[in-house]
Design brief:
TIM Barrel, two-stranded antiparallel sheet, 11 helices, 11 strands, 28% helix, globular, disordered N terminus
Amino acid sequence: MDIIISSLMLLYNLLTGSGDDSHAAGQIAAAYVNSAVGQTVIQPDSPLTGVEETETAAPSGVKKDPQPDTPPIKGIYVTAHSAGGARMKSLLKLVNDTELNSMVIDIKDDNGYITYPTTTPELLEVGDAKKYIRDIGGLMAVLKQNNIYPIARIVVFKDTVLARKQPELSFLHQDGTIWKNRRGESFVNPYRKEVWDYNVAVAKEAAKLGFKEIQFDYVRFPEGFEDKAAFLTFNKTDQTRVDVVAGFVKYAREQLEPLGVRVSVDIFGYAASVPAAEGIGQDFVKISNDVHVISPMVYPSHYSTGWFKQKTPDRSPYETIKGAMFDTHKKLEPTGELKPIIRPWIQDFTASWLGKGQYLKYGKAEVEAQIKALHDTGVTEYLLWNAGNKYSPGVSYK
């Protein structure tokens, strides 16, 4: 998932904006983030949360689901290492023995590596490939034989590989060195059309391989970018960061939809509960208008005291997910016919880093509580996240 390691003030600025972004209202503070599973804990400005009615009417444009007859998708995250390794056998059994029917597989990972040995010159000229999935054709055949709906996860603008290979496509310090975040990762510049075309080219190859859906992750600028932009060198236009990011999503959807594949985007779950995060360029509604599926990451461990009236949201999986879905529906209500399928990422891991008394050990009961909350709010699709792909046994995924 989209993983942020940042301080309280960085995430506060990310959500509320500063300087030119100070009109992005909401006294939202953020605290702890776990690097292993990408959990952001957020503090609300009051015990109650709600969606500000700041959205305008959905823009004109034609968006058509290329797979309208697809049954509700219930899937799991699968790393490239798992997909190309011994763990795939147990993951196949999990899907075959339950109501699950889909796998989200890393095709361009969090470092920026293409995860299979592509031989396409245009992709290798820009990026780099690994052999995590040695036989991509064989993998696709296995997924088809098992009636598993294949989703290709592509990490877009967090791309250390491309930043190192072509620094001019990244963000540079005044001395010409590449900017890195606290984890040593670099991003590439969403203003650069070359970056758009490269990621769309990876997606097109995934579609040709047989993936039914392309899921874009890290569709944003670096965290806290509004405080960094003035000190970094990079190409830009007069467009806002929000419009640039939304522009990529629209472009990608228009390029991929004719191939018969769906386009989905991962987005922070709390984006449905706050105004647009202009610092990183994400607007929940604008992105949703141009995707077939939106996947908010609504893990209960994202939220801290006060969200959805919960003292400890991680210990209240049903109430937290229900509140997040209420905000999601409210946020998307103005989009009308452009409203995408809502398919959230839910939590199947234990957030022990939250500290004693702040978390539950997640297993069958906690996963099923989240699924019930989705059903009770009219959401029939979901994806389960566990960074190590170790999913709780005995869960009913109905």
